[in-house]
Amino acid sequence: MGFAFYAIELLTYVFVLLMGVVLLVAGVLFAIDRRQTKDAIRRNYPVIGRFRHIFSELGEFFRQYFFAMDREELPFNRAQREWVGRASEGAGNTIAFGSTRNITVPGTPIFVNAPFPKLDADFAKSAPLEIGPTARVPYHAPSIFNISGMSYGALSKPAVQALSRGAAEAGVWLNTGEGGVSPFHLEGGCDIVFQIGTAKYGVRASEGGISDDKLSAVAAHEQVRMFEIKLSQGAKPGKGGILPAAKVNAEIAAIRGIREGEASISPNRHPEIGSWDELLDMIAHVREVTGKPVGIKTVVGGEAVMREMFMNIASRSADAPDFITIDGGEGGTGAAPMPLMDLVGMSVREALPMVCDLRDEYGLRDRVRLIASGKLVNPGDVAWALAAGADFITSARGFMFSLGCIQALKCNKNTCPTGITTHDPRFQKGLVVTEKYKRVARYAREIIHEVEVIAHSVGVAEPRQIRRRHVRIMQEGGHSRPMNELMPSYSAVAQS
Question: What is the DSSP letter of 477?
Fold first, then answer.
């Protein structure tokens, strides 16, 4: 009895003490909230007004896990992310009971199944496709699906290492992004596309512009197969790259040639490129110095400007870009102003068929390869892009999901919980390269395999034989129309 009495007395004492601490903290917060002038809610409703901010911060996470349906979220919904997750794990990607996708939504592509699809004996693999036939060292690219530009700096060291090793394992290329080539891009042994951004990181001369010596040094790496001059990217057309100061450590500063601890802001465009002729001069110069294929990456703003580009290319065919990467306005990045991310640049769904037709109209089909980029992460996206006219497809965020990205939307804050877009060792330790590179390779292989499944279903032997006639696009009212009627290819129009 005595022990119980003392226990109750002790618990009562602890409770009173805790209540005192709580009241003291509440009193301090009350005084702070009443005196501060920045937040009207906290000033009018001291202490309890703080919960509004807490709930707002937590809201996006609760919606993702408890409230959003499989197909509701943006930029990528749960169904898309889980497909990548299963593919990366090597798990079966079959589903049961029926699709959760609402196929009556206007714009939805529906592939036209053949009455007599291909048998196993008729299947073929997509052969390597040559890029840069006039370069001293053309590139015979082996894969239709590859890794889009992601810089070391925007991504962590272990993330780049895993991508490099996974790309080599799967036989796909890895684009460096505009941050220059790092030892971690090279260490896996994969094919590399070196991106030249507006700040010329990795190849910049001390006085600005491109250093031919640095270009030659990069090209001397056998793994570096091509060079891509970035004019713009989907998430921020008209705005250069943004790497927050918190991410600029000594190693990244050395690779980029910038100051440690200062934000890395690229110019809005290449200062020396103010016209199509100057762009073609730059392409010709980089190709001459490196001996390797050179292309451009751009976001499409309209048909008139792209027609002007192809007119100039046709008049200087010797200086033509070896490839053009079309990034849709829905493309992503770790940091971009919201107006540019939301409102500027055509979608790849509209831009790709248009650019393909212009290229063919000017007789450049076999000279200029098209690469599609921008939110193409699942097999249906890739198959659609091939039907629309792409020769290759690249993805960045799809491969981030394969690394374990949970769409926490913290890419610009150096607090990525999965270690992919942070340089904080606390978070990076969660990304184990020896495990994650296998996921990268499995994802690439599974995408290609399932695009082959779609190709065989529509009656062709391999993915690059998919045409616009094999796709129907859903319209208002629940009726679909053939893609080749909505967007007739230039060859079909020319023959009519």
Answer: T
Relative to beta strand 129-131, strand 323-327 is unpaired
Q: Which two tokens stand for residue 480?
A: 């679909």
Summary mean pLDDT of the chain: 86
Instruction: Say how far apart CA 403 and CA 397 lie, in whole Å.
Output: 10
Do 294 and 229 meet the contact criterion of CB atoms below 8 Å apart? yes
User: Whole-angstrom Cα distance, residue 65 to residue 140?
Assistant: 43
Say how far apart CA 471 and CA 448 lie, in whole Å.
Answer: 18
User: 422-462: per-residue pLDDT in tens?
Assistant: 888 888 888 889 999 999 999 999 999 999 999 999 999 99
- DSSP secondary structure of 104-121: TSTT-EEE---SSPPPGG
More confident residue, 337 or 402: 402
**What gap in Å lies between CA 344 and CA 210, rounded to an integer?**
29
How far apart (Å, rounded) are the C-alpha atoms in residues 378 and 85?
11
pLDDT in tens, 219-239: 999 999 999 999 987 666 666
Q: What is the pLDDT of residue 401?
A: 87
Characterize the bridge pairing of strands 224-230 and 191-196: parallel
Find the angle CA(485)-CA(491)-CA(492) to the nearest 5 degrees. 35
Task: Write down the domain spans for the chain.
Answer: 1-67, 129-494
Report whether CATH 3.20.20.70 matches the domain 129-494.
Answer: yes
- Beta-strand runs (E) in 173-233: 173-175, 191-196, 224-230
Q: Count CB atoms within 10 A of the CB of residue 7.
A: 10
